Amino acid sequence: MLVDDLRGLAPVTSDWVVMDAARVQAFADATEDWQFIHLDAERAAAESPYGGTIAHGFLTLSMLTALSRGVLSDLPGMTASVNYGFDRIRFVSPVRVGRRIRGVFTVAAVDELDAALDVHWDVEVEIEGEEKPALVANWITRIFLED
Length: 147
Description:
This protein has 147 residues and is of the alpha+beta class. The protein has one domain (2-18, 57-145): Thiol Ester Dehydrase, Chain A, CATH 3.10.129.10. It is built from six helices and six strands; from the N terminus they run H-E-E-H-H-H-H-H-E-E-E-E. Strands 1, 2, 3, 4, 5 and 6 form a six-stranded antiparallel β-sheet that branches. A hairpin with a 7-residue loop joins strand 5 and strand 6. The radius of gyration is 17 Å and the shape is elongated.
């Protein structure tokens, strides 16, 4: 049964993804957040506490979908999965542009609905070579089931 499969799922770690300048620029353009700490390496190095440009926190958060791609790929009976929301999000450490991130996804709880499941994921986005994560969150996805 899918519920038991989810509750027994071991933590899953995604592949690494590069947070390069092109990705940061595309996100800045999509969200109209052109703050210099994201886009101007020289100014960010001189004027920000980060010593260079950093990815947007919301860009890192939005990467959860891409990072989670392999987590649910083989669950039997699933027809679709959508974002339902977050119970908690904390941006712990900035991601320097050019660094790699990956997600660690652990099932915290599963709520059974009539034709769906709400899966509560404890998520940590790691930054390669860093002790502290970029973010931690409790993310809820709704999984729709076959009839």
